[in-house]
Amino acid sequence: MNFKAVFIFLFFTIFFDTVTANTECVWATGKVLCQKNQTLVLNTIVELFDLDSPQGMNIKNPIDPDDKVAFTLVEEEDGIFRVEGCASDQDWFPGIKNQPEMYFRIFHFCNNPNGEYKYIWPIFRVFVPTTYDKHIEDPIILDN
Ligand SMILES: *[C@@H]1O[C@H](CO)[C@@H](O)[C@H](O)[C@H]1NC(C)=O
Ligand SMILES: [Ca+2]
Fold it and tell me: Which residue segment(s) compose the domain that 103 sits in?
């Protein structure tokens, strides 16, 4: 057994695991409203994404599409949804945590029977064990 090789292997495994990726999990809950007819919130799909554009915020990166982390279906007319999942982001600078930038993409039928997408900005960085529940108090209005 070559202890030196084992040591070097373990060192690099641990080093790269801790330095190059940062996994965070999200527990999110919220509410969607369709003010013209609340029945139309049924079958809304709420997707949770991790933005992967290098500088975050509202710029899309066409080469490296954002990662879909989780999704859920709105099954009750109250419009309440719950979604959870984990995302992992590259840490570009050793020791500086690059936390995933989370946002919702919603596919809904409030304005159009064929459905349409709505993106909810800005991104948020609220991770387990804290539940991201901003959109319970401040529901997402789907009407255009
Ligand atoms: C609301 O939408 C549902 C589902 O399409 C429909 O059955 C219902 O008649 C609508 N209600 C009103 C008040 O328009
Ligand atoms: Ca990201």
Answer: 3-141
